[in-house]
Amino acid sequence: MKVTLAIEPRQDNDDLVFGNISIFHVECDNNKVSIRRNPATDVCSLRCNKCDFKIELMNNGDGPNSIFRTSIDEQSRPLNPDEYNSVSVVEIELVSKNQQA
What is the pTM of this model? Predict the structure, then answer.
C-alpha cells in the first residue's frame, strides 16, 4: 500500500518535538495519524485512526528527521524504506498540509 502523510507546518514558536507534530493520512480523507513512542525501545509508531495502518520509526533515525524537515520547509519528500518498518505499507510520501491540492 502507498501512503501519503500530510505534515502540519511548524509555527515559529512551536517546540520541535516529534510527538507534537500533527500528521494526517491523505488517502483516508486527511484522517489524523496517532503518534506513540515506546520509551523502552525508542520506537515511534504512526497509526491511522481510520484504516489502522501502522508504521514504526526509530525515534532518533532519519524517518523522524524527514518528517521534521517537511514540517519546517514544506517540501514533499519520500520516506525511504530503510527509515521505517511496516507490514502493509511499501511506499510513503511526505507532503505539507499547506501544499495539498
Answer: 0.89
Backbone angle region of 58, left / alpha / beta, with phi > 0 → left and psi within -120 to 50 → alpha: beta
Could you read off the pLDDT tens digit of each residue along the chain, which spans 101 residues? Answer: 899 999 999 876 667 777 788 999 999 999 999 999 888 988 889 999 899 899 999 766 788 889 989 999 999 999 988 889 999 999 999 999 988 75
Q: Which of 99, 101, 96 is nearest to 24 (CA)?
A: 96
Task: Let me know: does 36 contact 47? Beta carbons within 8 Å.
Answer: yes
